[in-house]
Design a protein that fits this description.
- One of its GO terms (molecular function) is branched-chain amino acid transmembrane transporter activity.
- This is Branched-chain amino acid ABC transporter permease.
- Helices cover about 70% and strands about 5% of the residues.
- The protein is mainly alpha-helical and about 325 residues long.
- The protein has one domain (about 5-245).
- It has a two-stranded antiparallel ribbon. A two-stranded antiparallel sheet has the order 2-3.
- Strand 2 and strand 3 form a beta hairpin.
- The longest helix has 27 residues, at about 210-235.
- The two termini are about 15 Å apart.
């Protein structure tokens, strides 16, 4: 790793270390808020792989998040609470749906791809909204927290608050580390090439459809991790988790943070979540807090106008390789 790579890595490691010690000093409310931010950071990282690293703008990414959340709750409703079964099932459900969606939608491009992913997400939304399987518009409750046990001994009980927090932190670190390493691999370089010029990649002998489909399914599985954690955290899921505006929210996260950077995705999740909490505060805005969406919209417009490269542009450490990569970090971090 170059000196610039190490400098990029230091703030991330410091942030992860601070997250590890936060529950020791933070109140229960702020610990839950940080847990929510970490879950959304995983969700944002999953979309960053698709949008920032592959150049595929999806407006239906919430479907994979919501499907994993519903599978988690439905399995506990069926009295299946083993973490070794629930988590893989949630991820496989998201990945399987992504495989079907991607196999069809990736035959299109541009605005057509965006609209097809939105259409498939809305189909999934109405399956849970209009049928008894998902409890309708009211949603369904988690019937028991997933437990990891070996030989009758409980290793992890996600119903215990600190345990869920640290499991989410480990999964966030693992997701970030996995993507950072993957983007340096041949597969990651191929995705970067597809984003830059897909036609040239095909001329070079790469079967770009397979690479894009693999990235699409992988991003859905990572979104499934976030959906699983969210279901366990809230104990309730409803069809809004699959809605188009939730897909828009996670897209805003990576835009605010800076598209093309893994660190930017996490910064965007932090920024958008904190802005939502800020503008909903009646202590600060009084009765006008009911119109927090208006304030949030104005703040986002201001951020995009003043920081066209996102929050990561304020702390980005340039290097020579950036110029060769057209201004984007070569490793996507």
């Amino acid at each position: 790793m170059s000196r610039a790579d190490l400098l990029r890595l230091v703030p991330v490691l410091v942030a992860f270390a601070a997250l590890a010690f936060f529950p020791l000093a933070g109140s229960a409310f702020y610990t839950q808020l940080v847990l929510k931010i970490m879950i959304f950071a995983i969700f944002a990282l999953s979309l960053e792989l698709l949008v920032g690293q592959t150049g595929l703008v999806s407006f239906g990414h919430a479907a994979f998040f919501g499907i994993a959340a519903y599978v988690t709750v439905l399995m506990t409703k069926a009295e299946i609470t083993s973490l070794w079964l629930v988590l893989p099932a949630a991820l496989l459900a998201s990945a399987a749906y992504a495989l079907a969606v991607g196999a069809l939608s990736l035959r299109t491009r541009g605005i057509y791809f965006i609209m097809i992913t939105l259409a498939f997400a809305q189909m999934a939304y109405f399956v849970f909204h209009d049928t008894p399987v998902g409890g309708g518009s009211d949603g369904i409750y988690l019937m028991g927290s997933p437990i990891a046990a070996v030989g009758g001994a409980t290793l992890l009980d996600l119903g215990h608050g600190p345990t869920l927090y640290y499991v989410a932190l480990v999964l966030l670190v693992a997701t970030f580390g996995f993507l950072a390493v993957m983007l340096r691999s041949r597969f990651g370089r191929a995705l970067a090439g597809i984003k830059a010029n897909e036609q040239r990649m095909r001329a070079a002998g790469f079967r770009t459809y397979g690479y894009k489909l693999a990235a699409f399914v992988l991003s859905a599985a990572l979104a499934g991790i976030a959906g699983f954690l969210f279901a366990v955290k809230d104990g309730l899921v409803n069809p809004e988790l699959l809605s188009w505006h939730f897909s828009g929210s996670v897209l805003l996260m990576i835009i605010l943070g800076g598209i093309g950077h893994l660190r930017g995705a996490m910064l965007g999740a932090l920024a958008l979540t904190l802005l939502q909490e800020l503008f909903q505060s009646e202590a600060l805005f009084g009765s006008f807090a009911k119109h927090w969406q208006l304030l949030l919209g104005l703040a986002i417009i201001a951020c995009v106008a003043l920081m066209p490269n996102g929050l990561i542009g304020l702390v980005r450490i340039p290097r020579a390789a950036d110029r060769a990569a057209g201004g984007v970090d070569g490793d996507g971090a």
